[in-house]
Amino acid sequence: MCIKTLNISKRLGALPGHEIKGSIKKRRHKKKVFKKFKEVKKGFIYTGIIIRNVRGMKRWGNFIIQAATNCLVIVNNYNVPLGSRLFGPIFLELKSMNSYTKVINLAEILL
Hints:
Blueprint: E1 2-5, E2 19-23, E3 45-52, E4 57-59, E5 63-65, E6 71-75, E7 89-90, H1 93-96, H2 101-105, E8 109-110
Parallel strand pairs: 7-8
Antiparallel strand pairs: 1-2, 2-3, 3-6, 4-5
């Protein structure tokens, strides 16, 4: 659940590549839980990067690209993702933002 968008206007809303503050509503439970994943708990507030959204993005020539679901990656203070895998595509516009290289390396597909 989004609490606040960081470094952007409230009226604009968040697009892929923007950072937001939010709380965890639902978490996937795995059989093996590593030490660094134990710190992610339900109800706590974390910083995350939006990697795709239903609203979509406008590219050159009024070409709009959209995803079927909204997706967020939880990161620490150094923009390193807390998870070890990302499922689904990531928008290509994240590649131009130099601070999210670790997130892009985990991606399966770049759209």
